[in-house]
Amino acid sequence: MADSKVPPVSNETDDFDKVQISDSNEMKTQSHGSKELNDSSSVASSGTDTSSIVAKSFGIRKSELIMAQMTNWWMKGFFFFTIFIGMYIMMMENDAVRTFSSYATNSYKQHSLMSTIGIIRSVVAAASLPFFARLSDNFGRFELFIVALIFRIIGLLIQSQASDVQKYAAGTVFYGFGNAGMRILWQINLSDASSLRWRLVAIGVLSLQTIINTWSVGEVTSTLLERHSWSFGIALWAFTTPLVCLPYMLFFLFLIMKARRTDSWKQIRQEERDSFIEGSASAKRYHSEMLSDTTFAGKLKGHTKLFGVRLVQTLHAVFWKVDFIGCLLAALVFGFILVPLTLAGGINSKWSRASTIVPLVIGFVLIPVFIVWEAKITKRPMVPFKVMKDRGIWAAFAIGIFSTLNTGMANDYAYPVLLVGMNASKVVAQRTPTLNYFVEGVTMPILGFVLSKVRRTKAFIIFGNFMLFIAMGLFVHFRGTNDGYRAKYYRDGVAIGMCFVGFAQVFIFRVVSVSVQSCTNHEYMATVTALFASFYQIGSALSSSISGAIWTQDMYGTIRGRMEELNVDTSLATLAYQKPYDFIAKYAWGTDPRRAISLAYADVQKKMCIVGLCLCVPMLCFILLLRDNKLTDDQNLDDAAIDPEMGVTAADRGKSRVIFDNDKDYILDFLKRLVGIKPKTASVEN
């Protein structure tokens, strides 16, 4: 009877399924595999006809087994706490380094290149996130975390010793790579260890630190700047962050060692070994030679040959399974297009120079190359078509771009705007842009508990979009107007707007991340999560590019124009543009030169905030296209098929359904009825 439940797999996904099954060699595993397929298929049978079943990778099964070692609440609580303290120091470091970057570019007399540094960091992060997610599925979360930590340390050391903006940018590449890897791996860890119902509460651990950091980072950075240089302030974290992450690494090692002693781990290892030998003619031959040779030298020679084959396969996996070329092409496309936009302006326009035109041409030429590679050449595209074609996935990716694009438009250059344009102290200028994170940290656990009761996501996301409309409207008024006198009035308005942004971000970005994870299984959870975060970073890069382009193209001319209006010597415009922090040290608040720069900052900021306000409209359209799966008490919807009484765990199951598209979307159905479209009826309500 069980066999009759297995639905036919659609032809359009046959090739992909064969790749998956070939890679893990699940067809050659133990006899319980047929039962696992039936268990998994029983869920698929209730879905759409196009749903399919694929083999689970050995890495995912190991990860499930490692998380299963946390058998009581205190172990899971301690695991979450180690991530919390690691994230606490990591975000304090991020905020401090971002501030020190402003002083670094100021010391290079290239302060306007702040956005360029931000673009480099975002582009590197966007390209590296799928890399970390896919490799962690194959080689382990802990191993990739160590790699990310090493790159982070190298980047900090290079940045701290950089003598020009080019060397600083090189350090930013390493730092952005490691920083993105550590954060996404922590988010994946929290998702691995939590059910969909409580997912928002779990990933809220990543935001709790903002409740403390919002009020402490400004004090830390201002104290460091008073006593030390920006160079020391950056180098300090190369030692501090790894030390604070030590409890997390030690506890994760404990879980791995505990999992290694289980029979399930030994069985998975045996299946993996058998798959390796059966999947390679060379490995099979060397293994036979090793078994037939009883001498020590012969066995050593056989082990060496097998190691060589394994090394080649590992390198092959790194190249193809993570789509290394695809990640590289994506980084090059965004880098070549976005970075020149922020470099072309300034005191003298550089649009006609080859240094601006050539990168732009290369970037646009690489776009079709990237498309051809992903569609025709690569064995493992960054986003498998069967996953990407679901509206719950691609709509979430679009929201990832717009959510940071519109908020980033208002947040970019926040520190100099407050410090220079609104006469804020260094502490206030540091603290105010982080108020959104504080509100996010306070709101997220509360919303997480509410979401665990409601178990639906779409209504919350729509509400968040409306809150973002209000926030952007406040920014247009308070950041887009300034008289050069009422500094506190405008600072308070900006602070209120930042609080609304933080409130909206919880309902949009955080809840959407739960929504997109509910659309797929554990096998693709890390990849989908990483790609969603990648689009989030792409949105950040786009916002930095647009705001940087507006700033570099308009700021110098606007400052000069305002100085002419106030009868100020226009030769001061060069100093005000290149080294604003030195400029405000010479001219006190309320003087005409200082008023000129405040008015100019407001003029340019108004343009940025209006763009951000307009972008809320297309984001609402994508929100309406999201799926509204019911959040269950399982890690993913596919695990709902597990019958605990049969003694089958998630790690034991070798098959899994890919997409869950049979949700009951009350909001979209209501909108369809309004325009006369009959909603489709889901076979089983999710």
UniProtKB/TrEMBL annotation:
Principal subcellular localisation of the protein: membrane
Keywords: Ion transport, Membrane, Transmembrane, Transmembrane helix, Transport
Regions that span the bilayer: 73-91, 111-132, 144-162, 168-186, 198-218, 230-256, 318-339, 351-373, 393-415, 435-452, 459-478, 493-512, 524-551, 608-626
Membrane association type: Multi-pass membrane protein
InterPro entries: MFS (IPR011701), MFS_trans_sf (IPR036259)
Annotated Polar residues bias: 21-32
Places the protein is found: Endomembrane system
GO terms, molecular function: siderophore-iron transmembrane transporter activity
Cellular component annotations (GO), alphabetically ordered: endosome; plasma membrane; vacuolar membrane
Start-end of Low complexity biased regions: 39-49
Family annotation (Pfam families): MFS_1
Family of the protein in this entry: Belongs to the major facilitator superfamily.
Protein name, per record: Major facilitator superfamily (MFS) profile domain-containing protein
Native source organism of the sequence: Candidozyma haemuli
